[in-house]
Amino acid sequence: MMSLLQFIIMISAVVFILFGLDLYKRKKMNVLHFLVFFIGGGMVIVFSLNQSLLDQFGTYFGVARGADLLVYVSLILLFYFYIEVLNKHTKDKFQLTRLISQTAIDQWYMECKDQIASRHNIDRKDDFVFNIRVYNEESEVVSSVIDEIIDAWFRKIVLISDGSSILQTLINKQKQYSDKMIVVLSHTINRWGGAANQTGYNFIKKYGDELKIKWFVGFDSDGQMDVKDMDTFLKYIDADQKLWLDLENKKHDLYLGSRFVKGGTWENMPAMRKIILLIATLVTRIFYGAKITDPHGGYRVISLSALRKFVITADGMHYANELNEQIKKHHMKYEEVPVHIRYTEYSLTKWQKNSNSLKLASEMIYKKIFFR
Predict the structure, then answer these.
(1) What H or E segment, with its residue span, contains residue 181?
(2) Which residues are CB-neighbours of 57 under 8 A, at least 6 positions away?
């Protein structure tokens, strides 16, 4: 007589097979699905009717009891299904971010495209556009960052309001500097740092020629970065351009700001942050083969041609790992430039938890190994 456990196992196997039939009807069946749902389900039905056969099968895997083998296989299948569900959830997030990002870009362009056509470059600083993601910063801080950039005679800024509560502040700054090219792209809901940068990258990749820019500048809205470091970037670019006249293969695609190269400095950096950044540097070299001393620095100057090779998909801060990976993938030539990062009392009060580094590491491993 069939026991209750045998009956439950058999019903579970039948449900597995029905899942497999549903996948087949939706034309989403692959070889692994066939093995798991049909062959695996059939074997479970046979084993549930004859436990001694299950025990004999288990001995081939060094398991004393066949029931233990079912437990181990079930755990593996649970992990597999978890990864499948996680992949589906991740892809859905990508689609949502892509929709919100494209909507923000299209909305601004339709309303303000005439502004682009009417602009003319005055000097070489108009070759640069600053990309700044904004999410619920203090109005005074963001305003100060924008003022510093304008005071340094840079006249093109793309601000991405990532569902921010201070969108009106950005619009007011746009009106204040109506003679400058200040673009405000607004996400209807918050999608995090990587998604906001994705919007800025995609906008500039698409309309960079119309904006008459040659260089993209990654910049933060919290006041940690110093626009005076752009003088250093300009010196490196000028030196590189002169060298390129003789040796074309020496021209760099991008310049990465670093606190950890000679001449780079920082103020008030917490000790734990230094440790995390050193670990991040090591992990970047192991996983992506990129010898970058400050992989999550954020202060970057990228040529428009190189920018168009980058594809950002991550919503969160994993986007920095995506950039590092693609630098290696596309064999981009880069040079690290010393920068000065200032950790102010304000920026430290909104400091990200150190535990977020574990989340970033787990996301990196997942994207590198399991995501398809």
Answers:
(1) strand 181-187
(2) 47, 66, 69
Spatial neighbors of 208 by CB under 8 A, at least 6 apart, are 129, 216, 304, 307, 308
Identify the residue with better confidence: 242 or 249: 242
The tens digit of pLDDT for each residue in 285-327 reads 888 888 899 998 899 999 999 999 999 999 988 899 899 999 9
Domain boundary among 43, 69, 90: 90
Residue 159, token pair as written in the block: 């601000």
Q: Long-range contacts: 179-183, Cβ < 8 Å, 24+?
A: 180/150, 180/155, 180/156, 181/115, 181/116, 181/119, 181/129, 181/155, 181/156, 181/157, 181/211, 182/146, 182/156, 182/157, 183/108, 183/112, 183/157, 183/158, 183/159
| Nearest residue to 237 (alpha-carbon basis) of 252, 216, 222 | 252
Question: Which structure tokens are listed for 49?
Answer: 């009717």
Residues 6+ apart with CB under 8 A from 17: 37, 38, 41, 42
Q: Give the C-alpha separation, 109 to 245, whole Å.
A: 37
Number of domains in the chain: 2
The verdict on residue 355 lying in a domain is yes
**pTM (2 d.p.):** 0.84
Residue after which a domain boundary falls, among 73, 90, 107: 90
Range of the domain at 246: 224-372
